[in-house]
């Protein structure tokens, strides 16, 4: 029971309009969306375990393993007006159960 890892998937809707609080000298993030009505979903996978003492390293394990999105970074095949071919593009990742 104490050595179990809890895995959870969450779906988040992205926002078209977002407010940013930036430090002085930082640029505003640039984001492209297809339209105002096109709201994409992002799936995140989280793995969490119970915090415990590790006698070998002499430290506490905080229990956080990872939180990662299901995306893939691939080179773009066709070119467009906004980017040349072979530019790295983030696309949706596929999950097989």
From TrEMBL:
<feature type="compositionally biased region" description="Polar residues">
    <location>
        <begin position="78"/>
        <end position="97"/>
    </location>
</feature>
<feature type="region of interest" description="Disordered">
    <location>
        <begin position="72"/>
        <end position="97"/>
    </location>
</feature>
<protein>
    <submittedName>
        <fullName>Uncharacterized protein</fullName>
    </submittedName>
</protein>
């Amino acid at each position: 029971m104490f050595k179990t890892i809890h895995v959870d998937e969450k779906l988040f809707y992205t926002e078209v309009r977002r407010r940013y609080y930036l430090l002085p000298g930082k640029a505003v993030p640039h984001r492209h969306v297809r339209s105002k009505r096109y709201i994409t979903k992002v799936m995140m996978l989280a793995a969490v375990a119970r915090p415990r003492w590790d006698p070998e390293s002499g430290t506490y394990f905080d229990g956080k393993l990872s939180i990662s999105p299901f995306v893939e970074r691939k080179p773009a095949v066709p070119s467009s007006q906004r980017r040349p071919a072979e530019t790295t593009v983030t696309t949706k990742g596929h999950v097989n159960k």
